[in-house]
Amino acid sequence: MDKLAVYLLALLLVGCAANSGVVQTGQDSFMVSRQAATGFSGSGNLKAEAITEANQYCISRNKAVQVMGASEAQPPFILGNYPKAEVQFKCI
Predict the structure, then answer these.
(1) What are the domain boundaries of the chain?
(2) Which strand (E) or helix (H) includes residue 27?
(3) What dihedral do alpha carbons 43, 18, 76, 55 form, nearest 10°?
(4) φ, ψ for residue 24, nearest 5 deg
């Protein structure tokens, strides 16, 4: 029974991670965000994953990514304020 409880808890935590996917924010402007499921991971990897997704999005349109800005959630990472990274970009 203990293994089942651990499995369900892990599944619940993984389900809380958020990825916005690429969202158009204006003419030729886009945003992508990543949020961790817990406060135990850093936002550096999240930012790298978001930039990678932005790059892949632009490459699929035969363009290059131009990062216009990036932001990260600030600690303390408790009570739902989990590590988060957001990247604004254009495909040029």
Answers:
(1) 17-91
(2) none
(3) 20
(4) -75, 130
* Residue 46 CB neighbours (<10 A): 24
Distance CA 88, CA 54 (A): 9
Structure tokens at 78: 């408790």
pTM of structure: 0.74
DSSP E strands, 1-92: 18-19, 23-26, 29-35, 65-72, 84-91
Q: What is the mean pLDDT of residues 31-38?
A: 89
- Whether 33 and 18 have beta carbons less than 8 Å apart is answered as yes
Tokens of 9: 């808890």
